[in-house]
Amino acid sequence: MSVAAAGLQALVQQMQGVAQQAGGQHNAAQQTGGVSFAGELKGAIDRIDGMKQVAEAKAVAFSRGDSNVALNDVMVDMQKASVATEMGIQVRNRVLSAYREIMSMQV
């Protein structure tokens, strides 16, 4: 898993710990059938990681001379994975910024 994905997972764990300390239940949405933020974030991280793995697998197959893999497919998949990783990093930065702002608010 990439550094960005590991950083996002650490952020999710930290946010869950803060929610528990505040007396909230981080999985209440799951118990009532709703969608949890942590679940959505983990799903996004998994999709980004999956895109990177597919791109790497195609690159390896192309470099081995697999006739079923075209260079343009490899390049497009690698670019998709790169854009998705950058998006994940930007989302992490925004979530972290919002988290810091919320934690600095006076109650």
From TrEMBL:
Its main location: other. It is found in: Bacterial flagellum basal body. It comes from the Bacteria. One of its GO terms (cellular component) is bacterial-type flagellum basal body. InterPro entries: FliE. Coiled coil: none annotated. Keywords: Bacterial flagellum, Cell projection, Cilium, Flagellum. One of its GO terms (molecular function) is cytoskeletal motor activity. The keyword Iron does not apply. NCBIfam families: fliE. This is Flagellar hook-basal body complex protein FliE. It comes from Kushneria avicenniae.
